[in-house]
Design goal:
mainly alpha; Rossmann fold; two-stranded parallel sheet; 6 helices; 5 strands
Amino acid sequence: MILDTNALSALADGERSLAPILRAATEVALPVIVLGEYRYGISASRGRLHYERWLTEYVTTLRVLDVDEGTTLHYASVRGQLRTAGTPIPTNDAWIAALARQHAMPIVSRDRHFDLVPGAKRIAW
């Protein structure tokens, strides 16, 4: 499964309701987009040093998914399908959805707009 930024944040904050979902996963991956969003989010945080240390340790346990040429095909498809349906989502989330489709992995997220992406599955907590 793929962690969205809000899932990564919840994990960093020790949100217990996420634990059963992660235990059930055969693999937990982190899109490079999420890594960038999270690092940006903590850059101005009062707890920046704590979160940076946590991330440095935790990221080594995850598979980081990079964007590649194959991802761009999924991205173009996701954006086109959502445009046709009149249901656009934020650009970074379209990239995350593209990676989820490319790797056939569900997205752990509280963002319901992932439900609008054909071929993507969202796991909420």
